[in-house]
Amino acid sequence: MISENYELVLKTVKSIINASYDGIYITDGCGNTIMVNQSYERITGISIFELLDKNMKDLVREGYFSQSASLHAIKKRGPVSVRQKLISGKEILATAMPVFMNDDINEEIIFVVTNVRDVPELMKIKAELKDELSDTKALNEKLRQELKLFKEIEKAVENLIIKDSKMNAVVEMALRIAKFDSNVLLTGDTGVGKSEIAKLIHQNSLRKNEKLIEVNCGAIPANLVESELFGYEKGAFTGAVSMGRQGFFGLADKGTLFLDEISEAPFNVQVKLLQVIQDEIFYKIGNPNPQKADVRIIAATNKDLMKLVQEGKFREDLYYRLCVTPIHILSLRERKDDIVPLALKFLKNFNEKFETSKYFTSQCLNTMVEYDWPGNVRELTNLVERLVILAKSDRIEKRNLPAYIQNTGRVLRDRKYEGLTLKDAVHLFETELIRDTIENEGSIRKAAKKLDVDPSTITRKMSKN
To answer: Which of 27, 170, 256, 415 is the residue whose CA sits 20 to 30 A from 405?
Structure first.
């Protein structure tokens, strides 16, 4: 009878907790996760089974959230409210309350109950309150401080674009080079962000208050490259503008000229570029008088210029003049640690642009990290924009990714089975299938229906991990 009453009470408590619209997270007195309700999973996008039985210290260390309200409450032995930054980049407000043995604060802490709310929803509520209670000075000041804090958080996240140590080294080199007025050659695959590094160099150089002129040598017809770069006098050739043209070198005077796709510059123009670099002068078409060239050149290419030199397609002397301080920008597959912060930065930008509140689940971000990104940062930008536009709900899941990215993740996971016994391989496969299904379906009950098993079967199999 006692056992039946206990089971009934436990079932009732679980039902009440799961009925809460707010997220509820319960740990023991040591910070070990005991129970998480479905609203927490909805708000955070983190699967319950990624959290159960794990200690809060481990979850913080693994990056699931920036700090633990539960651990703060245990240390303080009292209620604590904190803002948590999740692995998806989302912000939540967590309030933790310790529960003491015999309701005596001098006794041992047996549980910590944390209530979680969605920060964007709170901000919406606060905005409504501001309209209704605009005559309350104290409330207005509090809201102003809250908004200021959120802006500071957004700015911090915006600055955390590069986390990969190898890419940090590239940026540090660019900043060192920026202070010296020498030519720079940027190399790297298409879409890695060469133009962004060029801007970084210019903005931190002695010429930062002057113009940065960007020229794509591959986008200008070969017969017009010389006239576009150096300009021409009126009537210099058939079809010339009657007033003449200054040219990019003239426009960039005292500033920086960024020559992207320099490998596409015609051979005859390469000769004139060499003269500009050596003698610091150039000639407009139709004008025999030399023009002063006070310009810093940053060139960029996605091709092997030395190979082109060996093939006679690029001037060797120009190559060495441009390659005074070379910087190779890594492809995205070589700096995996940058994928998540870049994806979150683009997500923030497109959320602002389209006035949406989309966020990634942790499984979606993990799958994106596994992909090789042959189109690099440009491909990642385009994908995030597409996901923000096409995702039907605010929650962007793995299933929203293109099939070719999802399949890449499956191929990588298949390698995990190498060297495993049949029993271990089956267990690993079942675990991943159940987690993926729960993630895609949104709950254990729906996942069980999809897999045609009883919910208790899923709970039992997941508890073995």
So the answer is: 170
Element at 429 (helix H, strand E): helix 422-441
Nearest residue to 395 (alpha-carbon basis) of 434, 440, 353? 440
Using CB atoms within 10 Å of the CB of residue 215, give its burial: 0 to 12 exposed, 13 to 18 middle, 19+ buried: buried
- Assess if CATH 2.60.120.280 describes domain 2-119: no
Residue 86 DSSP symbol: B
Taking a C-beta distance cutoff of 8 angstroms, is the pair 192, 331 a contact?
yes
Shortest CA distance to 97 belongs to which of 25, 16, 14, 17?
Answer: 25
CATH of 337-463, one of 1.10.10.10, 1.10.8.60, 3.40.109.10, 3.40.50.12780: 1.10.8.60
Burial of 145 (0-12, 13-18, 19+ CB in 10 A): exposed
Residue 32: per-residue pLDDT? 93
C-alpha distances in Å from residue 168, one per residue of 171, 268, 335: 5, 38, 10
Residues of the chain by 3-state class (helix, strand, coil), percent to 5: 55, 15, 30
Residues near 305 by Cβ (< 8 Å), separated by ≥ 6? 185, 187, 262, 263, 314, 319, 323
Assigned token pair, 87: 């692995």
Sign for the pseudo-dihedral over CA of 212, 218, 219, 221: positive
356 by DSSP, 3-state: which?
Answer: coil
CATH classification code of 165-329 = 3.40.50.300
Residues of the chain where predicted confidence (pLDDT) is lower than 50: 1-2, 149-160
Q: Which residue has the tokens 């003449």?
A: 244
- Please tell me the predicted confidence (pLDDT) of residue 150: 47
Left (φ > 0), alpha (ψ -120 to 50) or beta: where does 325 sit? beta
Which of 334, 300, 331, 305 lies closest to 317, judged by CA?
305
